[in-house]
Specification:
Elements (H helix, E strand, L loop, with lengths): L4 E11 L5 H11 L3 E6 L5 E8 H13 L5 E10 L8 E3 L1
Parallel strand pairs: 2-5
Antiparallel strand pairs: 1-3, 1-4, 2-3
Length: 93
């Protein structure tokens, strides 16, 4: 059975810039077979938009809650989005 694709927007607050957070997110998402983009926002948060199956998105969420070793995640906001299918891979924006 083919799992339905879904999408999530993750907003990560804390010490998440300058600590390799985007690369960590990209590595995790690619390992999970997700597509999307991760970028730093002007206010110091990191935004990730990921599309894929529910189980993979859940594993990405778990990874984002801890982040790479030098990060300190204080808050993670998650929104469900309709999948667009416009991402061909998972990139850093």
């Amino acid at each position: 059975m083919h799992e339905m694709r879904t999408a999530r927007r993750f907003l990560v607050t804390g010490r998440v810039t300058g600590v390799g957070f985007r690369y960590f997110t990209q590595d995790t998402a690619r390992r999970e077979g997700l597509t999307g983009v991760v970028r730093n926002l002007p206010d110091g948060r990191v935004e990730a938009i990921a599309e894929g199956d529910e189980a993979s998105l859940l594993r990405l969420e778990v990874a984002l809650r801890s982040g790479p070793s030098h990060a300190r995640v204080e808050h993670l906001d998650i929104d469900s989005l309709p999948p667009t299918g416009r991402y061909l891979s998972f990139s850093i924006g």
